[in-house]
Amino acid sequence: MDIMTILIGASATVIGLMLGVIFGAMPLQTEKMSEGHRRCSQLLSIVGFGMVMALMIVKMDVASWTVIAAMLAGLVTVKIPPLHRWIVARIPWFAPVSHDSASSKRNGFH
Question: Chain-centre distance of CA 19, in angstroms?
Fold first, then answer.
């Protein structure tokens, strides 16, 4: 392994960890997501998938697996209840959206 392979793998792993942390901080249930959450989730999914595919295409299999592991580690770590509450308190954008009764009745939920 040369230094360039190590640098690419390490930076991709850090990016994967950040993606996992952002995914973990957002609500997982679709009905608790705002439109911004949905857009961000779609964008992050495309970025994560694209990064793993690009690493696999250039035959950097170890780096692609470490990116996947880093994304999962970030997601699982941030879902720890005290840490998740702390992040939502610090960054309110990550808070789940509570829909009012009018919109829920409009959608067929009572």
Answer: 4
Q: What mean pLDDT is predicted for residues 59-87?
A: 94
**In 10 A of CB 94, how many CB atoms?**
18
**Domain range list for the chain:** 3-106
Rounded to whole angstroms, the Cα distance separating 67 from 73 reads 10
Query: What is the full DSSP assignment across 69-98?
Result: HHHHHHHHHHTSHHHHHHHHHH-GGGSPPP
pLDDT tens track for 48-59: 999 999 999 999
Residues 70/77, Cβ–Cβ less than 8 Å? no
| Higher local confidence (pLDDT), 107 or 2 | 2
Per-residue confidence (pLDDT) for residue 100, from 0 to 100: 62
Q: Which residues contact 78 (CB under 8 A, 6 or more apart)?
A: 20, 21, 23, 24, 25, 84, 87
